[in-house]
Design goal:
Layout lengths: L40 E2 L3 E2 L43 H8 L10 H19 L3 H12 L3 E6 L6 E6 L2 H20 L6 H14 L5 H15 L2
Antiparallel strand pairs: 1-2, 3-4
Protein name: Ribosomal protein S7 domain-containing protein
GO biological process, one term: translation
Organism: Meloidogyne javanica (Root-knot nematode worm)
Length: about 230
């Protein structure tokens, strides 16, 4: 026991001098190791790093890259706690949550994820493009840029044209896309995934076959007459 605390050559106890010896693989041989993480792909298939948001006003409100890149559109994030926090919710997850509308579908998020995944597979087969890019294009095209609001008190009410904020454009585009696909699949032999794929493709092209594009044009036409 006494030998353990015997002073070493430089006046330090033997136990306190453990780092002074040259040990192979010690501090001199230490090397920094870098870990290459694999690229995050939606459903393990669709790359999110090369998605482009072509509308500058919506860049901050369509969350798809960097921190918003997820393997699954099911982050269990509490985006409703604070105002405007939902702008940071991944855009694919916002689509999934919007597909859960109407009482009988409330809370069935896994079913909604399956529908969106199936729709993305169909989009890729039909267009050969990244379905996330198609979704971003559909959201950009589907949101109205001008709307009308009610001005005045009871009795003398008139409608006044107003600009639409970027966040509301995104919100309304997602709602219109999901509503259009839901109505198209009702009492139809086509599945909801097929109708969602058709709606997204048509909206991304700006085609009037899309429910969202038709509604957007109608809202903008009414707003124009109320300027």
């Amino acid at each position: 026991m006494a030998d353990d605390f015997a002073p070493s050559g430089d006046g330090l106890p033997a136990d306190d001098n453990w780092g002074a010896t040259d040990v192979p693989g010690g501090q001199g041989d230490m090397q920094m190791t870098t870990i290459d993480f694999p690229e995050i792909k939606l459903f393990g298939k669709w790359s999110l790093s090369d998605i482009e948001v072509n509308d500058p006003s919506l860049e901050d409100y369509i969350a798809v890259k960097d921190k918003s890149a997820k393997y699954l559109p099911h982050s269990a994030g509490r985006y409703q706690i604070k105002r405007f926090r939902k702008a940071h919710c991944p855009i694919v997850e916002r689509l999934v949550c919007s597909m859960m509308m109407h009482g009988r579908n409330n809370g069935k998020k896994l079913m909604a994820v399956r529908i969106v995944k199936h729709a993305f597979e169909i989009i890729h087969i039909l267009t050969g493009e990244n379905p996330v890019q198609i979704l971003v294009g559909a959201v950009i095209n589907g949101g109205p840029r001008e709307d009308s609001t009610r001005i005045g008190r009871a009795g003398t009410v008139r409608r006044q044209a107003v600009d639409v904020s970027p966040l509301r454009r995104v919100n309304q585009a997602i709602w219109l896309l999901c509503t259009g696909s839901r109505e198209a699949s009702f009492r139809n032999i086509k599945t909801i995934a097929e109708c969602l794929a058709d709606e997204l493709i048509n909206a991304a092209k700006g085609s009037s076959n899309s429910y969202a594009i038709k509604k957007k044009d109608e809202l903008e036409r009414v707003a124009k007459s109320n300027r």
